[in-house]
Amino acid sequence: MISNANYLRGAVKIRLSGSMPERFINLCIVEHILLWGITKTDEDLIAWIRLDDFFRIRPLVLCSHIKVKVLAYRGLPFVIKRIKQRKMLLLGAILFFALLYTLSSYIWFVEITGLKNIPDQEVRTIAEQYGLKAGAIKNNINSKAVEREIALQVPEVAWVGINFTGTRAVVEIVEKTMPKQEDKAPAHLVASKDGVITEIIVLVGQAAVKNGDTVKKGDLLINGFAFEPAPTALEGQPPIINVPKELRARGIIKARIWYEGYAETELQQTTVTRTGNQQIAVAMKIGSSEVSFNKLPEQPYPEYETEIIYKQLPLWRNREVVVESTITIYREINTEHKEKSIEEARNEAHAKALQAVQSSIPETAQIVSRNYEVLKTPAEDIVRVKVNVETIEDIGQTINIYH
Amino acid sequence: MLRRKGRLQSLAGLLEIPQDIVMDLPRITMLGNKQLLVENHKGIIEYTPSLVRIKLSQGELLIYGQTLTLGNLQAEQILVEGVVQKVNYDI
Question: Pfam families per the record (chain B) (predicted)?
Answer without folding.
Answer: YabP (PF07873)
